[in-house]
Amino acid sequence: MDWTKPQGRPATAAPPPDVPAIELKGISKAFGPVQASKDIAIRVMPGTIHGIIGENGAGKSTLMSILYGFYKADAGEIFISGQKTDIPDSQSAIRAGIGMVFQHFKLVQNFTVLENVVLGAEDGALLKPSLAKARKLLKELAEEYELEVDPDERIEELSVGHQQRVEILKALYRQANILILDEPTGVLTPAEADHLFRILEGLKAEGKTIILITHKLREIMEITDTVSVMRRGEMTATVKTAETSPEELAELMVGRKVLLRVDKKPATPGKTVLEVENLRVVDDDGVERLRGISLNVRAGEILGIAGVSGNGQSQLLEVLGGIEEATGSIRVNGDEVDLTGRHSDGQTRRARSIAHVPEDRQARGLIMDFTAWENIVFGYHHDPAYQKNALLMDNAKMVAEAEAKMQRFDVRPPNPQLSAKNFSGGNQQKIVLAREIERNPDLLLVGQPTRGVDIGAIEFIHQQLIELRDAGKAILLVSVELDEILSLSDRIAVMFDGRIMGERLPSETDVRELGLMMAGITDEGEEAA
Amino acid sequence: MDRLPPWVDVVLIPIISLILAFLISGLVIIGIKEDPVEAMRTMVQGALGSSYGWGYTLYYATNFMFTGLAVSVAFRASLFNIGGEGQAMMGGLGVALACLFIPWPHWSFALVGATLSGAAFGALWAAIPAYLQAKKGSHIVITTIMFNFIAASVLNYVLVNQLRPQGSMDPASGRFPDTVALPNLGDILGLVGIPFSRSTPANITLFVALIACVAVWLLIFRSRLGYQIRAFGKSEPATVYAGISPVKITMLTMLISGGLAGMMAINNVMGEAERLVLNAVEGAGFIGIAVALMGRNHPFGVFIAALLFGFLYQGGAELGLWTSIPIELRIVVQALVILFTGALDNMVRMGVEAIYTRFRKAPPEVIKAAEAAE
Questions:
Q1: Number of domains in chain A
Q2: Are A279 and A239 members of one domain?
Q3: pLDDT digit string, tens, across residues A15-52
Q4: DSSP secondary-structure letter at A228?
Q5: Nearest to A34 among B227, B244, B370 (CB)
Q6: Which of A353, A478, B71, B353 is most buried, taking the most CB atoms under 10 A from its CB?
Q7: Are residues A241 and A328 in the same domain?
Q8: Which residues 346-375 of A are in CB contact (within 8 Å) with B?
């Protein structure tokens, strides 16, 4: 670890292998009445990858925030390499050799890679020596760990995968011995994720300790040595990864047996409900986001759109949902839909029996400050059934209806007067689904139905989608989770760079092939639609 | 997190803020070597101690109810309408024109006509900034402020060049005909046998303002338009998803807001002055912002806050009259009230929240939600 020397601080001595690199004892933290962490204990040995898995809100992020000095624990002790350490702020965490790669990167978009790496760790008032040193270091790291990034490129020019590498480089530049990654693969393609895992393996071989926080069972099984499961702020188990199974972990996470696979009958597609032809969208910057999309969805089938986020899937959903304007043609049940002008908005789409579960439920699908019942009316508030008279709405009726829908969709708690923001991610999504599915639409557009949703709710949401399909409705599903696409879809279309790269049947393809298509690579002879 | 029960949020926090504001006002009064207890007594006595004082307090409160409602309706759509002042000025012009040029057979017809006319002028004056924001992206805070100045200039021009009676040196319109004189509050209360001073400017407009409070409440919380306004105010991306047009909601909200501000003119122009003078609004448009802030943008909160500011206005004037405390202190007290109830609201709130969560268990609803979130 020669490269740590120019930093001007003594390199941390490698701890003896039998002392945990990091050990937590009795960590507790409460936010008001909510106990976010309860008596947490972990030991992570140096040179290992330790996974922390749990549902949203299980307390993973709180725990990591305590480790990185964002929160102060109410009780408990932290030991780094056997030394009791106080971490009152992130500077102390960095001094203790902890590096953090956040889910949402903390990079200055219009700075170069080099500037971002040095930012906050400059050696003096003059930048030049620090930059030169960082440049040398970056080169060494690139060779050692496959962490290549062009040091002079601006962050905004980099792909998400490369931005993540910059975050890792930042941590290494600050001599991190313990690297914490929070949901690192959420934004990556399968290939990029594989690359990240190779980097992590390399770091592990160097003796670094890695803590991986995720809710994806597959990643835990693939890369970790040991894994801790969190549920409701408690550590329910810590096991060797080799000695456990995804089913067991899922059960530990949720507290009951979970069906990991979707149970469904083969589809019986009927008449074509949605026909899309040559759809094009040019955004405000003049960039063409949809470059001639054509597809169709039939009654009683689910068409899954796979792709890395940012390849036009969002635009496709928004055009279909009447949020964005486009050129081309969309027909629903054989009738043309307006794509521009006054008759192209969410209201007219709903009138045509198109329901839309948007990708971003917190910004679009729900109004977080509205109560559940106000949200269940949202978008359908023009329904004459909701009017008491010409002037006033029938609040009592809307509340009662909302409560019934919440019961049917198992929203917990089924209290229509509670604000949307007080529900968990899964229950928020159930509120949106209840609103859209209960309208019995001919076509349902669904974006990222289970993003940020806990495993128990995922199972329920998938069942609802399958039921709607079996009721003879057409469903267009957009998801960045390949597993979800593979298990729900009857046909899969892969999007890349605003185009459809091709269609596959789930039974005749696999993650590898789809992953290549998502990266824009198709077999020869396969025409890109 | 809405961890605090409603009564703490709506009642306790404003009261604590008020007490803090009054305490510091007291310190200021001590600082200028006067007696704060005596000052407080003078204010309460002057504003609330007689039906004469009440009359003035209610007259000011009526103005503030209209402008407070105007600001709060716009706030519900996340629009910061600072143009209440200008909209009320233009409303005055509308009221004056209706009173001067239409031969009303009876004051009741005149009241309806002048209300509509004032509202229309105020709404029109708000519509231009609204259009510029909705369609052209100019910020409504900037444009409404500028429109206050433009309104003042327009009024100046119209009064000096058009409405000023021949031979008059005063930039004001002629007196309205006697048929449009609105019943005084003392006359109205006299009808039901309540003795009340007849020499105050308080008039029937007070009841129009009360009706407006209820109407705005129905609009915001019970009507579809109100639902859309609130949705737009909370999340524009979501309203676009739902197919609610931001342009339409911005325009409608500002029309209503400007209309309410314009309606204030029936109180001060038609009810009190009975002619249109320069600066008839006297800053009520700006007080409306404070009233809306303190009233939590809720029509009933606005009602209470308007009464409080009416009290401050009248009591402050009494201070200047009966004590050696300069009348400017009224502005100091008002500023402190605005500072504590508006700008420093979070400071008090955080303190109360910390104390509350320490001494009481959270309501069961929140705990349940937190558990469901796990």
A1: 2
A2: no
A3: 556 789 999 999 998 877 777 888 999 999 999 999 99
A4: E
A5: B370
A6: B71
A7: no
A8: 346-350, 356, 358, 360, 363-370, 374
- Is residue A343 less than 8 Å (CB to CB) from chain B? no
B4 to chain A: nearest residue by CA? A32
Which residues of chain B neighbour A33 with C-beta distances below 8 Å?
357, 361-362, 366-367, 370
Q: Where are the domains of chain B?
A: 62-323
Q: What would the pLDDT profile of A217-229 be if each residue is shown by its tens digit?
A: 888 898 999 999 9
- Long-range pairs for A515-524: beta carbons < 8 A, 24 or more residues apart: A515/A189, A515/A190, A515/A191, A515/A482, A516/A191, A517/A306, A518/A189, A518/A190, A518/A306, A518/A307, A518/A308, A518/A311, A518/A494, A519/A189, A519/A191, A519/A308, A520/A496
Residues in A closer than 8 angstroms to B361, CB to CB, are 33
Size of the A and B interface in Cβ pairs below 8 Å = 111
Report d(CA B109, CA A278) in Å as an integer.
Answer: 62
A positions 198-237 inside 8 Å of B (CB): 231-233
In a shared domain, residues A350 and A468: yes
At A250 the three-state DSSP class reads helix
* Amino acid type, A19: V
Q: Is the pLDDT of residue B278 over 50?
A: yes
Condensed to tens digits (0 to 9), the pLDDT of residues A253-312 reads 877 777 667 788 888 999 999 999 999 999 888 889 999 999 999 999 999 999 888 889
Q: Do A358 and B241 touch (CB under 8 A)?
A: yes
Strands A178-182 and A22-31: unpaired
Owning domain of residue A30: 22-97+177-254
Q: How many of the other CB atoms lie within 10 Å of CB of B161?
A: 9
Query: If residue B227 lies in a helix (H) or strand (E), which one and from where to where?
Result: helix B224-234
Residues A276 and A237 in one domain: no
Say whether residue B365 is in contact with chain A using an 8 A CB cutoff. yes
Contact between B88 and B118 (Cβ < 8 Å): no
Flag whether residue A54 sits within 8 Å of chain B, measured between CB atoms. no
Domain membership flag for residue A157: no
A259 belongs to a structural domain: no
